[in-house]
UniProtKB/TrEMBL annotation:
Protein name: Acetate kinase
Disulfide bond keyword on record: no
Protein's pathway: Metabolic intermediate biosynthesis; acetyl-CoA biosynthesis; acetyl-CoA from acetate: step 1/2
Record keyword ATP-binding present: yes
Localization (cell): Cytoplasm
Protein task: Catalyzes the formation of acetyl phosphate from acetate and ATP. Can also catalyze the reverse reaction.
Length: 421
């Protein structure tokens, strides 16, 4: 997820009844890391944020930033054995800032959960049945759901009395029609193994498509938006009237755009070929496509800043990697234009989308006939805010809309647990 940004208004949160708790702790638990933010939903203020990395190693690190005025970033290094120890350390840091997890002001804990399958179309208060269902989805999300579950169970042990809410990365995409969600493979086999396109980054696509509508001064129901979430992982989505109708990631986050280390779309027969002809094992192919492909596989770097620096210096491999990245992006813009029929805006978000003007310019170049263009001066402006970068005459707005998955998770969590006004 991208770095914390200053407080933004929490417009979708319910007005708190006086005295009711308004804080939400957002937890994003990975296999060896926990990212967190504490937000106050009364005004959307961010109170603290941090990250525990390398859990289970000797060199674990906790970086904690109190976001109240005058708060200074603190760091702890040294072994943190497991997620329980990590969360305990986070709780201690929050307590030191007067924001402890035992505070009566804490309304809920919101957990990012990567895979919610088809069952979870909305944020959900976690109970034993929900835990069991997230567990049942481990075979389709073997890297993510187990880590999310550890984070949830640890938080539940810490505050068993508090509502814990799961916000699913897949939920926003459950509105995709079957024509977009089904792979064209044998139906019985697909259904028996729950093979279909689920999509990911849904929290970001939901937030950014809504913020884009707001930027255009319209309601989400009124606009069709192509969202390009370009981080280290990257995905595109086609959103019609606030509902997702297609997205580029599939059964797993491997499908779609060229990413930092993932190949994105590829002929599945390449995997047979690698096994039969190159003698690679299943796991080796998995690692190749997920960790050693995409930008890093093409040119040895997965940071777009470094790639652009090399391109400027005339490095041919970096230039080819950039061109392949842009070519794929452009294909998805065209495809989703066709899927939507009418497009009101194309929104760029996440680390690359928000910061790499060269990517935005190249992705839209040559698409004037589709009503798409970027104004060079507007595109060059560096700003943390949502903004339109297309010239006034363009039929389709091109926008930069910073994503904020933590705020979206906090909003959805709070909306579920706050007493109705
Ligand atoms: P994720 O959450 O998927 O890890 P982010 O959304 O934080 O990813 O994006 C990380 C990526 O953003 C980096 O790998 C880097 O390529 C890119 N990035 C960050 N800042 C810039 C910048 N100023 N210019 C170009 N690319 C940038």
């Amino acid at each position: 997820m991208t770095a914390p940004t200053p407080a933004a208004p929490a417009d979708s949160s319910r007005a708190p009844s006086s005295g009711a708790p308004t804080r939400v702790l957002v937890l994003n638990s990975g296999s060896s890391s926990v990212k967190y933010q504490l937000l106050d939903m009364e005004d959307g203020a961010r109170l603290a944020a941090g990250l525990v990395e390398r859990i289970g190693e000797e060199t674990s690190r906790l970086a904690h930033t109190p976001l109240k005025e005058g708060g200074e970033r603190r760091e702890r290094t040294g072994p943190i054995a497991d997620h329980a120890a990590a969360l305990k350390a986070v709780a201690e840091e929050l307590t030191a800032d007067g924001l402890g997890l035992d505070s009566p002001e804490l309304a809920a804990i919101g957990h990012r959960v990567v895979h919610g399958g088809l069952r979870f179309t909305e944020p959900t208060v976690i109970d034993d049945a929900v835990l069991a269902e997230i567990e049942r989805l481990v075979p389709v999300a073997p890297l993510h759901n187990p880590a999310n579950l550890v984070g949830i169970r640890t938080a539940m042990d810490l505050r068993p009395d508090l509502p814990q809410v799961a916000v699913f990365d897949t939920a926003f995409h459950t509105t995709m029609p079957e024509s977009a969600a089904r792979y064209a493979i044998d139906v019985e086999t697909a259904d028996a193994h729950r093979i279909r396109r689920y999509g990911f980054h849904g929290t970001s696509h939901a937030y950014v498509s809504r913020e884009t509508a707001r930027l255009l001064g319209k309601a989400p129901e009124e606009v069709n938006v192509i969202v390009l979430h370009l981080g280290n992982g990257a995905s595109a989505s086609a959103v019609r009237g606030g509902r997702c109708v297609d997205t580029s990631m599939g059964l797993t986050p491997l499908e779609g755009l060229v990413m930092g280390t993932r190949s994105g779309d590829i002929d599945p027969a390449v995997t047979f070929h690698l096994k039969r002809v190159a003698g690679m094992s299943e796991d080796e192919v998995d690692v190749l496509l997920n960790k050693r492909s995409g930008l890093i596989g093409l040119c040895g770097d997965n940071d777009m800043r470094e790639i652009r620096r090399r391109v400027e210096e005339g490095d041919e491999r970096a230039a080819l990697a950039f061109d392949i990245y842009i070519h794929r992006l452009k294909k998805y813009i065209g495809a989703y234009y066709a899927v939507l029929g009418r497009v009101d805006a194309v929104a760029f978000t996440a680390g690359v989308g928000e910061n790499a003007a060269a990517v935005r310019e190249a992705a839209v170049a040559g698409l004037e006939e589709l009503g798409l263009a970027v104004d060079a001066d507007l595109n060059a402006v560096r700003s943390g805010g949502a903004r339109i970068i297309s010239p006034e005459y363009a039929r389709v707005a091109v926008a930069v809309v910073p994503t904020d998955e933590e705020l979206e998770i906090a909003r959805q969590t709070f909306a579920l647990v706050a007493p109705a006004p």
